[in-house]
Design a protein that fits this description.
The complex is a heterotrimer of chains A (about 160), B (about 180) and C (about 675). The longest helix of chain B is centred in the last third of the chain and has 19 residues. Chain B has 5 helices and 7 strands; from the N terminus they run αβββαβαβαββα. Chain B has one domain: Glutaredoxin. With about 180 residues, chain B is α/β, with parallel strands linked by helices. Chain C is α+β, with helices and mostly antiparallel strands. In chain C, the strands form 2 sheets. In chain C, strands 2-3-4-5-6 form a 5-stranded antiparallel beta sheet, with no helix packed on it. In chain C, strands 1-9-8-7 form a 4-stranded antiparallel beta sheet, covered by helices on one side. In chain C, strand 3 and strand 4 form a beta hairpin. Classes of the chains: A mainly alpha (about 160), B alpha/beta (about 180), C alpha+beta (about 675). The interface between A and C is large, with 71 and 96 residues.
């Protein structure tokens, strides 16, 4: 197939996929079962007598008991947040595997955004400088570029 | 001032906070978490002892209580503190109520431990599914809680008890109780 | 007498390493060849002494000499010989000895390999390596002496840590990992040498890239083997818990990988000198930091060795290494700054730069998550945790972006891209990716992460396959070779490129396997009496009987086994056990893993009651897990393919004069370079 048709085809496929995802997302999802909710909570809690494992992943005595208590509290009609809180009341925030402070979530994102921003500015500013200098917007061809081209061409011919 | 020289600031800005942070970490046990129970009433319970007696939290009121979570497999820490507790039981006698709670262990393990390292003169509670340990927020044995005569938790010892901690904390609890009593 | 011999070897090793450090510096400053030669010999000798000390320790372990504290704590008379030997790295002091052995080994190899060349760089690199070796010898001379005696001498010991003697993988995973860690000291040493001599040029880049790739391969395989070990031994059904010890291995891997990518830009465009030097420095400092974090008890972890007096030494080493190398970098900054040349906005260079930003973003996130609890506790006194849910949520988007770049990168030309060529290259791969997502949706997958991973992985693999096809067909056309021969010659004449593509393909396999196994697994727990059965994800497990007996090769260990019949997509029987070791208070699970290409059936015995033969079983069905290990193998093969020395000059009777596109520096120029070649011309079109 000629490659020129591939890209329009790809655009069409992406559009169709977007439509499909919207349909899938909009279809009323069945509410998560109690087991799923319980597993979710257990996955967010730190097993007290393990090292860094979650209650969902651990088979220690405490983890088994915590899973039982989660089940018990959910059956009694408590909300997931209330269940989590009942363990925070006993162990403090230490028992939550995801820190609740917004900083813990924002800082990695901010650092990454700042780095991407700095990179973008660096690349665009250099382009401007070259343009203003009257040259091409793209970096000039160098010895290294030529060596590179020649190297690849040779590899094909060898 | 030369602005370019400011780049030298980069070195201490990276090194000093990192080293201070790591220095802070020395000797810190990540399982050692402060208890949420300090100043609050001890959780209620009703458990059976190793020799079949039932003990409730209510009947422990009136005397300072030393509640010790331990296991026969917690070696050597629980062995070390066992000697301290035997000594404490001798010297404080009936002024203090010592209670052991077996943590994730079998009664047989506890009996063998007692036979080897000295029979405890205090009751050992069985907590088969670890419910009481969860209520106290225990992260692993040994861990001990000092509860005053009114049933309020006053101190948490993470790791093995030492003679100094026992005399310090029990002295404080007895002093307070004595002060009110006289 | 043996322990004294071992310790004497360490003390002499310290003296020789210290001598080599000074001799290299003096020799370099005076240009004195004789002094440099003696420094080289001192390095070789320090390797010999480390080997002597290590062999001594192994003999002590094999002969169960309990007069040595390390043996008394980590061995028993019943320990099988294999586990006695690998106990060399089972605890703190021994692992430092093993570490020193590998480090001096790398140092000797590097010095020997480059004994005749790189006159300016080598002495300074040698001095750096010798100084690092001296540090480790010093640790063993004073706080971490592995040959410390103990009285009274016990007649029996507890044996090695139960977790470590439960699986033969302990013989493989630590050596690979340590080979990676210690090997990364070599690029660091050359980084320091380059900054001192102001030679961050192509010669430097070529050496550093090669000496980074080799340890990188070991580190990659070591991390994979470690994940496999924890899957096969720890019994919770997973392979990665974002445990500090895992993060410690991941951090230098991330920066080393970033370096490997940025070094290609640096080589092509002669820029990024500050950046590449900073990356090799960061990589080594992160290995030191990881060692410190996991060996000092600062952050608990599955295998934090017990708290020890070694911590302050490592902290001092981190402070010195970081201050020294950062100071050197800052000092040389003015000399390096002018050389930077940014890329065109849409080009392979930009893709590489963004790749580096993402790798460093993940490095920051992992380091931040590892240190966050410590920082919060130091600043506010609160105790908080950071675990798998946080790491997964923060890092998953970054890894997906990396996967996307992995596909886009090779489709973008160096220099500046023309929209048309990019468009033509991306079309079919996008269709392939969309097809993958649709297939995932069709089989009922609804989680975003695995769907996105499958789509992106197919996108990447399609681009890589397309690249190979284009090169092959162009070669087959111009030279009239049959396609397989054309493909092989193309790949072996462009080892770095096609080796790199194979690595990327392996990463794609791993990424899909990881995201699917992490989200699509099912599990069940049941308490059963003999004859009863349980169901999990289409399997029926029938519990048959409980067997309790001592292990054949180590009778001190009692194994309690539940024998279970299985029917479903796999049939047969399995035995899952708990083992009681004399050295361990709680029994160690020995999960049974029934592997097939589609999924693993993973069964753990949680508890049992010997009186009634009742057992509690935890059964998991983990899809695609085996592809994580297979993908890791592909990564290893691809990387080895990439750095395989080019022997064509010696062996292949090539029809034409042999061109050189070796895995080394830029090729020698045979013809005048055509002045008309534009940078965006692609090789296949040229």
């Amino acid at each position: 197939m000629p490659r020129t048709y591939a890209f329009p085809l790809a655009l069409g496929a992406l559009l169709a996929l977007a439509g499909l995802l919207v349909v899938v997302a909009l279809r009323p999802a069945s509410a998560p079962s109690r087991e799923e909710v319980a597993r979710q909570i257990a996955g967010d809690l730190r097993c007290p007598d393990c090292q860094g494992l979650s209650v969902a992943d651990s088979n220690s005595g405490s983890a088994v008991e915590i899973r039982r208590q989660i089940e018990e509290q959910l059956t009694a009609g408590r909300s997931p947040d209330e269940v989590r809180q009942s363990f925070v009341d006993r162990y403090g925030e230490w028992i939550l595997l995801s820190p609740t402070a917004p900083l813990a979530w924002l800082l990695p994102a901010l650092v990454l955004l700042a780095a991407v921003g700095a990179l973008t500015v660096w690349i665009w500013r250099a382009r401007r400088t070259r343009e203003r200098a009257g040259g091409s917007a793209d970096p000039p061809v160098t010895e290294l570029d030529r060596a590179r081209v020649r190297e690849e061409a040779e590899a094909l011919d060898a | 001032m030369n602005v370019r020289a400011l780049r030298w600031l980069l070195v201490p800005l990276v090194v000093v906070p990192l080293v201070l942070l790591l220095l802070h970490g020395f000797g810190r046990d990540p399982q050692a978490i402060p208890s949420r129970l300090i100043g609050k009433p001890m959780p209620e319970f009703r458990l059976v002892t190793l020799d079949g007696r039932t003990v409730t939290s209510a009947e422990l009121r009136g005397k300072p209580v030393l509640l010790n979570f331990w296991a026969s497999w917690c070696i050597p820490a629980c062995v070390d503190e066992h000697a301290v507790m035997l000594e404490a039981a001798r010297s404080y006698g009936s002024a203090v109520q010592i209670v052991g709670v077996l943590y994730q262990d079998t009664p047989d393990g506890a009996r063998t431990f007692g036979a080897r390292y000295g029979e405890p003169s205090w009751p050992t509670l069985l907590d088969p599914d670890g419910r009481l340990a969860l209520d106290f927020g225990v992260t692993g044995p040994p861990e001990s809680y000092f509860v005053d005569a009114r049933g309020i938790v006053r101190y948490k010892q993470f790791g093995p008890l030492t003679a100094a901690v026992v005399s310090d904390q029990l002295g404080r609890l007895l002093g307070a109780a004595g002060g009110r009593g006289s | 007498m043996l322990p004294e011999l071992g310790h004497a070897a360490i003390v002499v090793g310290l003296a020789l390493s210290a001598y080599a450090t000074i001799a290299f510096v003096l020799g370099a400053r005076r240009g004195d060849r004789a002094v440099l030669a003696s420094a080289r010999r001192a390095i070789y000798a320090s390797f010999g002494l480390a080997a002597l000390a290590a062999v001594t320790m192994v003999v002590l372990l094999l002969t169960h000499d309990f007069s040595v504290l390390y043996v008394a704590r980590n061995n028993a008379t019943t320990t099988p010989p294999f586990f006695s030997v690998i106990s060399l790295w089972a605890a703190l002091e021994g692992s430092i000895l093993f570490w020193t052995l590998l480090l001096t080994g790398w140092a000797s190899l590097v010095i020997w390999r480059h004994r005749a060349g790189h006159v300016a760089l080598l002495p300074w690199a040698g001095a750096t390596l010798a100084a690092i070796s001296a540090f480790f010898f010093a640790v063993m001379t004073w706080p971490g002496n592995p040959f410390t005696r103990v009285t009274p001498v016990a007649t029996e010991g507890p044996g090695p840590n139960a977790l470590l003697q439960n699986h033969p993988f302990m013989g493989l995973h630590p050596p690979l990992l340590y080979l990676g860690y210690t090997g990364l000291a070599v690029p660091f040493a050359f980084g320091i040498a380059a900054l001192i001599t102001r030679r961050t040029d192509e010669e430097w880049l070529g050496i550093v890239r090669r000496w980074t790739l080799l340890p990188w391969i070991f580190l990659t395989l070591g991390i994979t083997a470690g994940a496999w070990w924890s899957y096969a031994v720890l019994g919770w059904g997973g392979y990665w818990a974002w445990d500090p010890v895992e993060n410690a291995a991941l951090l230098p891997w991330l920066t080393a990988t970033a370096f490997i990518h940025s070094s290609m830009v640096a080589e092509r465009r002669g820029s990024l000198r500050i950046w590449t030097s900073a990356l090799v420095i960061a990589t080594f400092c992160l290995t030191l930091l990881g060692t410190f974090l996991t060996r000092s008890g600062v952050i608990a972890s599955v295998h934090s060795f017990t708290q020890s007096s070694i911590g302050p030494w490592f902290l001092a080493a981190i402070a010195v290494a970081l201050t020294g190398s950062l100071g050197l970098l800052v000092w040389r900054l003015p000399a390096l700054v002018g050389s930077e040349r940014p890329a065109a906005p849409v080009s392979r260079e930009s893709a590489f730069l963004l790749n580096n930003v993402l790798f460093l973003g993940i490095t920051f996130a992992v380091l931040f998550g590892t240190l966050y609890p410590l920082a919060v506790e130091a600043l506010s006194g609160d105790t908080v945790s950071v675990g798998a849910p946080w790491f997964d949520r923060v890092n998953a988007p970054l890894f997906l972006l990396l996967l996307f770049l992995m596909g886009v990168g090779p489709a973008l030309p160096w220099g500046a891209a023309s929209w048309r060529s990019v468009r033509d290259r991306l079309g079919l791969p996008i269709v392939a990716g969309v097809a993958g997502v649709v297939a995932g949706l069709a089989i009922g997958m609804r989680d975003a992460a695995p769907l996105a991973t499958i789509g992106l992985a197919l996108f990447v693999v399609a681009i890589l396959g397309d690249e190979l096809l284009r090169g092959t067909s162009s070669r087959a056309r111009t030279r009239g070779e049959p396609a397989p021969a054309a493909a092989w010659r193309l790949a072996t004449r462009n080892r770095r490129r096609y080796g790199g593509y194979l690595v990327h393909a392996g990463i794609c396999v791993m990424a899909v396997a990881i995201s699917v196994s992490a989200t699509q697994g099912q599990d069940a727990t049941a308490t059963l009496r003999p004859g009863q059965n349980m169901r999990v994800a289409g399997y029926t497990l029938t519990y048959q009987r409980l067997v309790q007996e001592p292990l054949r090769d180590d009778p001190q260990v009692i194994e309690t086994r539940a024998e279970v019949g299985i029917s479903g997509r796999q049939t047969g029987s399995l035995a899952t056990a708990l083992r009681s070791y004399p050295s361990s208070s709680t029994p160690i699970a020995t999960p049974s893993v029934q592997t097939s290409l589609g999924e693993d059936l993973y069964v753990t015995l949680l508890s049992y009651d010997p009186a009634t033969s009742t057992v509690t079983l935890h059964a998991l069905v983990n899809p695609l897990v085996v592809w994580i290990w297979l993908g890791g193998g592909v990564v290893g093969i691809g990387a080895i393919f990439a750095i395989w020395p080019d022997r064509r000059r010696a062996t292949a009777p090539a029809p034409a004069p042999v061109p050189v596109a070796s895995a080394g520096a830029t090729p020698p120029r045979r013809e005048p370079i055509p002045e008309t070649a534009a940078p965006s011309v692609r090789a296949e079109e040229a």
